[in-house]
Description:
- By secondary structure, the protein is an alpha/beta fold.
- It has helices at 17-29, 44-56, 61-69, 107-122, 146-164, 180-185, 187-192, 208-215, 264-268, 276-288, 337-347, 365-373, 390-396, 402-415, 434-447, 464-468, 475-497; strands spanning 98-103, 126-127, 136-141, 174-179, 198-200, 221-223, 246-250, 252-253, 272-273, 293-297, 305-306, 335-336, 352-356, 380-382, 420-427, 451-456, 504-512, 519-523, 529-533, 537-538, 546-547, 554-567, 570-577.
- Helix 10 packs parallel to helix 11 (337-347) and helix 15 packs parallel to helix 17 (475-497).
- The longest helix is centred in the last third of the chain and has 23 residues, at 475-497.
- Residues 241-495 form the Radical SAM core domain.
Amino acid sequence: MHPLQRVFRAQRLSAPLTSMCWVLLRTFRAHNSTSCPDPEGKSSEGVQKDFSSRLATGPTFQHFLRSASVPQEKPSSPEVEDPPPYLSGDELLGRQRKVYLETYGCQMNVNDTEIAWSILQKSGYLRTSNLQEADVILLVTCSIREKAEQTIWNRLHQLKVLKAKRPRSRVPLRIGILGCMAERLKGEILNREKMVDLLAGPDAYRDLPRLLAVVESGQQAANVLLSLDETYADIMPVQTSPSATSAFVSIMRGCDNMCSYCIVPFTRGRERSRPVASILDEVRKLSEQGLKEVTLLGQNVNSFRDNSEVQFSSTGSANLSRGFTTNYKPKQGGLRFSHLLDQVSRIDPEMRIRFTSPHPKDFPDEVLQLIRERHNICKQIHLPAQSGSSRVLEAMRRGYSREAYVALVHHIREAIPGVGLSSDFITGFCGETEDDHLQTVSLLREVQYNTGFLFAYSMRQKTRAYHRLKDDVPEEVKLRRLEELITVFREEASKVNATSVGCTQLVLVEGFSKRSTTDLCGRNDANLKVIFPDAEVEDITDPGLKVRAQPGDYVLVKEPGRLWREEKGVFFFHCARNP
Length: 579
């Protein structure tokens, strides 16, 4: 039995073409012997002579040897990396300008926001939650569906008014687009909305201080270059909520699955994983800060593969779930997700471990066995199905059939008794017939998920479906099918979640309920939200002592069968505190 635990504390520079050419021209002429006149009136011989004199008085080879042998003290905050030749170190400093960050989309974007803020904070920027006092507004965006992008366009129209009304006595208001939308649309954003000052793709957050410095000169700036190795492994994200009980830890970035409907490989790039050591170090720090839950994040989190340690580079290829295939050649070597999950779960036995978003193909038996054996690895698995039709799944390039998916569900439930399942579904994909739709309905009834995320298909440029398939399901049909899926999901989820009535469950307290100051809320092992009275309860670590639960505490609650409700696919249990 788990005792009640007390927590005692709460792409490149987008300058005008002439400017860019001038920077390159100066670099070229300093190393070239031609005698073309310099734009500043100096001959190339003069420039070369000046360069030679500076070279003669510069550091020698011995200087670099001495510098390498003596540890250098890190500069005090704010920290500034070596500036590019067209900017001074002072220009990279934030000078206590206030940054307002707004996050849209998935959990990865929440983590990206924390990474971006960590970088800006070290450069001397301040964080504000008041939009009116912000000097810089950064929107961390999503491109997974057209609706997500339209939300950003609408927000930009609102911010345009705010920027126009900015008093001239204050520094100019700067607005930036970060994340997937910046990566997907690139220059279209700068051309369509002149009030946007900067773009930074998911792999360019380190460049934010430079981009903001360029913007201060009156130019738009952008870096939307994707990386083959950027994981931000050396950056400790700054928690946006000081009272948080949980945190996201990014373990890998990008995706290689190339599902035909998905934009992620084009906005997030190829898969690359953080070194295991850096992940373990971050989780330890979070544990020391008193956090009680971490969620390991990745676009395809369970395909994690750390190749940073040479001794593991020659190990065999990954084991796939039975009946599943990949759209790419099997990858050899590296430390796999099962190894990472094992190590993370050992750091703090009282810290819950979750992970998202996985792909069904990457659930070998060793991962399932770990989830079953370790009490602090939550018995909840997200298992995106996307469709219940094998024909549609093939068109989606998912790498499995309906039969293989259902067999995996049965295998997981046998391996992990009482496991909670959640899933993603897309309705109205290219060529989906009414029979395909009914097969998805039947899958929802057969599996009975605890939680679901259901959407109508939205075609994205660059994807395989955009180039090779036809978005031929009418919008009204998509919406009708979506409503039918939602109705069936709610019916089946109600049945499976009702089995919790009368059961005592361990709940991690998150804080007060949003609907009542007399109730607390938290989540159980299956990631279902539980609401229970804020009343004194006996602390079983100190019999006779009455305490009130605080965020970060574990409490035992019992669902008595009185009240429970569901909103937008998320179930809320109203419980009585277990005596």
